[in-house]
Amino acid sequence: MQGWMDRWPLVGRKPHLDSFAQDLSANHIHSWMICGPVGVGKTRLAEEFLDLAAAGKRRTAKAVASRAAAQVPLGAIAHILPAGVDLTDPVSGFRTVAQTLAGHSKPTVILVDDLHLLDNSSAVLLGQLLDSQVIALIGTARPGEQTSDAIHALLQRGDHVRRIDLGHMARNQVENLLHRVLGGPVSRRTLHALFTASGGNALFLRELVLGATEAGALTHDGGVWDISEKRLPVTPHLRDLIATRISLSPPAARPLLESLAFCGALSLTDATTLTDRTVLDHLERSGIIQISAHRRRMTLTLAHPLYEEVIAAGTSALERCDLGLRQAERLESHGLKRRDDALHVASWRLAATGSADPALLQQAAAVAMNSNDNEQVIELLTALRPDQHTLESRVLFGRAFMHTGQLERADAILAEADTRARNDHERITVATTRCTNLFWSDPRLDRALTVCATARSALSDQACARQSRLMEGGMLTVGGSPAQGLRMLDDLPDAPPQEGLDAWLITLNAKALGLAFVGSVEEAQSLADHARSVHEAIGEGKLLPHPALQLAPLALSFMENGMIDEAREVSLRASDTLQAAHSPVARQYLAFYSARAEWLAGRPISARRWYAEAAAIARTHRLTRVVRSYLSGLMACAALVGDINMAASLIPDFEANSPSGFLAGEEALGLAWLHAARGELGRARDLLHTAAADARRTGHVISEVLLLTDVARLGDSKSARERLAELSSHCDGALTHARARFVTALADNDPQRLMNCSEELEHMGTPVLAAESAAAAAGAWQRLGDSRKVTAATTRAASLASRCEGARTPLLATIASTSEPLTKREQEIALLAAAGNTSKAISQHLTISVRTVENHLQRIYLKLGIRNRTDLAQALKYEITPEHLFH
Predict the structure, then answer these.
(1) Which residues are CB-contacts of 748 (< 8 A; sequence separation ≥ 6)?
(2) Which of 6, 92, 191, 566 is the most exposed place for a label (fewest CB within 10 A)?
(3) Dihedral over alpha carbons 302, 305, 306, 311 (to 10 degrees)
(4) For residues 707 and 698, what is the distance between their CA atoms, to the nearest angstrom?
(5) Does position 322 have pLDDT exceeding 90, yes or no?
(6) Per-residue pLDDT for 71 more than 80?
(7) Are 702 and 517 contacting, i.e. CB atoms less than 8 angstroms apart?
(8) CB 303 within 8 A of CB 288
């Protein structure tokens, strides 16, 4: 990795390099100006240009402008001027320099870094040399900087200057860059943390990665790079860079910058009490602050997340105390009108003095919980003495520890809260929270169900007793007994209740999942969509689970309805909304659904990355409940791409974790596909049959369907056929019906039905099953002796398999390279014919006879296993990818 760090990769700059190389090869005399803010890679790109010029046998030179060098005429470029030139007379001296450089066969390429800082003499001389066409200039500059007339003239030389404006990297560019640098994928939270902290600035990103790796905050665990939940360390180099930039601000800006660093966003009105509008304008133009409008309110923030840390580091403890108290008093003087005001005041007073009013701390913690900022909840409530806690604050404390994966601490706090409950409402509030925590802390349901039952036995209020029963039903539903759990959830109200809103949302989520588990996919999708809309519409001030959790059952129902691409989008969107929240329970939960969607689509590399992320979160936060499912997924993905040793290495860890009952039976996929990768198909099928029986016993219909489909894929379609047909009649999920048809066609060895299934499965977003179906059709047609159809099915299977990230299955292994590649002439004719051109038009275009065109077309039809132009157009559009056509 250090090699990459020493030469940080260029991102998205290849078009610029290609354009410069074309200029060199055509011997054009252009100058290139590379503009952009600090840290976007201006100098790096300019140096690449200079290297290209040197490789093209051009004379090159480099100069670095600075404010210090600008104090001396020609100070920045003196070292690159010809020796012995007398510049006391500028006119004759400049002419001599031009004549000396004109003696070279090609213009000298000169790089000037930070050209906007050049002195006037240097700028004038370079301009004259450009006019004499004896140099080509590569310059870097920061936009918005004040420059002299001479420099402005140098930067604005019409068509002779090509300007490149570089910006910060987009999120996907940062992800690709990190993957290259680190040699593997990063977790979604790591990407979010590094992208947010760097703002897409390549220099900042490099320093953050260096700092995190050196501090041990960025580690490789289970196949992904994951970063700790703590603040990212800032390297001394990065701190110096930012401090230097901030130091250029007017001294009058310091009070405002310190307030922004310590207190966060300020209104424009408050900002003008700390400095004048001239300073604000300077700070905005120089990119230190940004001003945004929200409704009728103008708000100021620091333009980059790292500025806060650097400014705060340069502020003394006494100054920070004064800042916090002043801002708190200012807000209190106006009254705490906005929802976040209590949170701000409590945080400022706590940071300034280490204490705050207990009632204010509890109010602030509730606001922080509503924003899913669990870390801040813990920080605020830790400031309370034991005797200052109320039952509400203890429940809030326990919830925050639960959501951050500190399950033992959560249970200790909630158990104490239980002893202090004074009425049925308080008892059920504590019990439902404690049940949820115990559910996640132990794969077995015994303790959680016992807490639920014990609480119910002590309740006299029927509404509270029903809430306890619903919570128990929810845990049973997702904990291994969906049929039993759903019976207990029959009387779950459709509308949110006045009390126990958080428990209602949790059980609504569980019910939607349970309906999908048992094959009522349409109802599950409808309920999940209802839960999502209700959760989003609920007003502020409620202590609720993260709304992203409501997207999990929606994603699962999409999968089982044959909308796998939509499921992937929903899972990814939900995961992204969680990254700013310190909520590992929710993050590992959503990562699993992303992994399952990728697995169903037949993308083992993408699925492996998500399973690895879920496993890494679970290990870090000791979320042991469903880690066995994640390890099974990791094992299956590794086996599917032929990484047998990696898959086998996971077995001890897999066996050390207890089954969770979640999607019962699917935990067997890892070992089954490992056996299949080793060629032990009989053992794999036996394991899948056993797992399918477990799923049948617990009522996990969609899991049983998945497992039996894999039995068929591994060579025993006849044993799975009857049961899948039966399940299809009881399940309304479109994917179940498609799988049943696929397995039946496999068992009947019917090639045309297999091709129909291939098209259906591709449309549903599962190219791996579509490819296997086409491969089986090719085999069936081979036995029937129809070579043309064999070729067509084989070509389709190969095209679909190419979208499956190197997946290897027994059916995919039957894809033979029976089709002969098209020649270059056949490629031309095929594409022209598919576009609708007549044979005569093609003959005229290629200057060949019509008969020759027709002969070529017949050979093309034979090679592609098709019959006519209509089939050709369809084949080129839907079945043949460029790598299959062009050799």
Answers:
(1) none
(2) 6
(3) 40
(4) 14
(5) no
(6) yes
(7) yes
(8) yes
Cβ neighbour number for residue 450 with a 10 Å cutoff: 12
Q: Contact at 8 Å (CB) between 227 and 194?
A: yes
Rg of the Cα trace of the chain?
33
Three state DSSP letters for 35-79 = ECCCCCCHHHHHHHHHHHHHHCCCCEEEEECCCCHHHCCCCCCHH
**pLDDT value at residue 498:** 75
Report which of 617, 611, 588 is spatially closest to residue 598, judged by C-alpha positions.
611
Secondary structure letter of residue 109 according to DSSP: E
Percent pLDDT > 70 in the chain is 93
Residue 801: closest CA among 813, 784, 787 = 813
Q: What sections of 622-716 are H helices per DSSP?
A: 627-640, 644-649, 651-656, 669-677, 681-698, 701-713
DSSP conformation letters of 715-773? T-HHHHHHHHHHHHHH---HHHHHHHHHHHHHHHT-HHHHHHHHHHHHHTT-HHHHHHH
pLDDT tens-place string over residues 22-36: 777 767 667 788 888
Structure tokens at 46: 């300019």
Mean pLDDT of 360-375: 85
191-200, 235-244, 253-262, 766-775, range with greatest mean pLDDT: 766-775
Other CB atoms within a 10 A radius of the CB of residue 230 amount to 10
The pLDDT value recorded for residue 146 is 67
Average pLDDT over all residues of the chain: 85
Q: How far apart are the C-alpha atoms of 383 and 486, rounded to whole Å?
A: 42
Question: Which CA distances in Å does 719 have to 65, 637, 665, 668?
Answer: 78, 25, 18, 18
If phi > 0 it is left, if psi is from -120 to 50 it is alpha, else beta; for residue 63 that is: beta
Place of tokens 């620091």: 302
What local confidence, expressed as pLDDT, does residue 821 receive?
A: 60
Cβ neighbors of 417 (< 8 A, separation 6 or more) are 391, 394, 395, 398, 430
pTM: 0.78
- pLDDT > 70? residue 123: yes
Structure tokens at 448: 């959680």
**Backbone phi, then psi, for 137, in 5-degree steps?**
-105, 135
Which residue type sits at 157? Answer: R
What count of Cα atoms within 13 Å lies in the side-chain half-sphere of residue 616?
25
